[in-house]
Specification:
Mean pLDDT: 79
Number of strands: 22
Largest sheet: 6 strands, antiparallel
Strand content: 25-35%
Radius of gyration: 32 Å
Shape: extended
Distance between the termini: 66 Å
Low-confidence stretches: none
Helix content: 10-25%
Length: 416
């Protein structure tokens, strides 16, 4: 290239170095390691880079020491004095990160300064734009509604309770979960969340709960397709390894959930392997039930197996709900009378509100009970009336069991 061509350019890019000289002028003692000075004098490094940008340098070059503190100082000074994109690259070594100029295939690297980058995007040279093909991700099969908790006890336990905070958290999850989809609903208080099965969404709910989010969720529903006028639903291929003595219970449960036996083979003399093709909705809440039926010795694996024609309605929960009559604190006397109507899911001392589900009844209809009822005090004493009240142990649900327990008109409150 001729020197005249350089001067004919519209804009120059200035690069300056001399970090070691600058450090010596600002306190670096003879014999002192520059790397140690970079760790002990981060403010001096920041000031040096600010001076370079003020003098007109376009590139801050800090290859001499390759220290993260120096890189952070350089990025800070560049961002404060430039509107151009600022980028840095680092590799992972041992328990830390090291700045690098290049990386080979298979290396794990981190980028700083690039925005709006999602999973599946390709970072390449502008002179050779060759994006890698993106792996096809299967469409979601299950949807739920995440909404702001509007119960009488809303906001008493959660740290993040507003619709904006819930929406930001869901969209943050999209950056690392390519199988998740989130859509805004007609109202600003709820969101339509779609994923690859009930467990996929259950993990998200539990993660948000542990992070301090408070919300309410609807029962899971499968996403249906219309093909040639026929309603198609997602199917799952289920592979189960189970002890022989529990095989009958597993096959009976999956059969009642519209499961179709595909293959069955022995595994040695004590175990069996059975394979089913079952609607995705037939697995809602079954995993915890499967662990109970097999005494924890069964192994269950599922994989998406396409779509098939609608298999018909599944057996719904035959039990009715026990609904609290008033707002207050559950007491032993009220629970003792209520447990005669069904199975309770609240303990003495738990706070309840009017309309809250506190148990379930063998009857197929909802029953209102007063678990806050206290015994009236009087001077009258009778033999046997003052005996200690004995309560049946309550039934505690897991998250998956709670989602299956819900009726279409019920919501599950999720609190920390």
């Amino acid at each position: 290239m001729q020197i005249q061509e350089v001067f004919d350019r519209r804009r120059f890019v200035f690069l300056d170095g001399g970090m070691g000289t600058q450090l010596q002028q600002r306190g670096l003692q003879p014999g002192q390691k520059p790397e140690l000075a970079a760790l002990e004098m981060p403010d001096v490094l920041t000031a040096i880079h600010r001076d370079y940008t003020a003098a007109g340098a376009d590139i801050l070059y800090f290859e001499t020491f390759t220290d993260l503190y120096e890189m952070k100082a350089a990025l800070l000074a560049a961002k404060e004095n430039s509107t151009l994109p600022i980028m840095a690259s680092m590799s992972f070594e041992a328990n830390g990160r090291t700045p690098i100029e290049s990386a080979d295939a298979g290396d794990i690297v981190a980028f700083s300064g690039l925005t709006d980058i999602n999973i599946g995007n390709t970072l390449c040279d502008t002179q050779m734009v060759e994006p890698l093909p993106f792996v096809k991700i299967n469409d979601p099969t299950v949807e739920m509604t995440f909404a702001v908790n509007d119960s009488p006890f809303a906001g008493k336990e959660g740290k993040f309770v507003t619709s904006r905070q819930i929406r930001d958290r869901l969209h943050k999850e999209l950056l690392k979960d390519v199988a998740l989809q989130v859509e805004d609903s007609p109202t600003s208080e709820s969101f339509r969340v779609m994923g690859r099965g009930e467990m996929h969404l259950s993990i998200l709910i539990e993660t948000m709960r542990r992070e301090g989010y408070e919300l309410q969720v609807s029962p899971p529903k499968v996403l249906l397709h219309e093909v040639d006028g026929k309603t198609m639903e997602p199917m799952e291929h289920v592979v189960i390894d189970v002890p022989t003595e529990y095989q009958g219970s597993v096959m009976q449960k999956l059969g009642s959930r519209k499961g179709e036996l595909v293959q069955m083979a022995p595994l040695g003399s004590t175990r069996m392997r059975v394979e089913f093709r079952i609607p995705s909705r037939g697995l809602f809440g079954y995993r915890s039930e499967f662990l109970t039926d097999t005494h924890g010795e069964g192994i269950l694996n599922t994989i998406f197996d396409g779509y098939d024609e609608w298999r018909g309605d599944l057996p719904a929960r035959s039990t009715g709900s026990l609904i609290s009559y008033e707002t207050g604190v559950a007491v032993a006397y009220g629970l003792f009378n209520a447990q005669q109507r069904g199975t309770l899911i609240v303990d003495p001392g738990d706070k309840v509100y009017e309309g809250m589900v506190v148990g379930y009844s063998p009857a197929g209809e909802d029953i209102t009970v007063n678990v806050c009822k206290t015994k009236h005090l009087s001077n009258t004493r009778a033999s046997g009336s003052d005996d200690a009240l004995r309560l049946v142990p309550v039934s505690k649900f897991s998250l998956e069991e709670s989602l299956e327990f819900l009726k279409p008109d019920e919501l599950l409150e999720v609190t920390p």
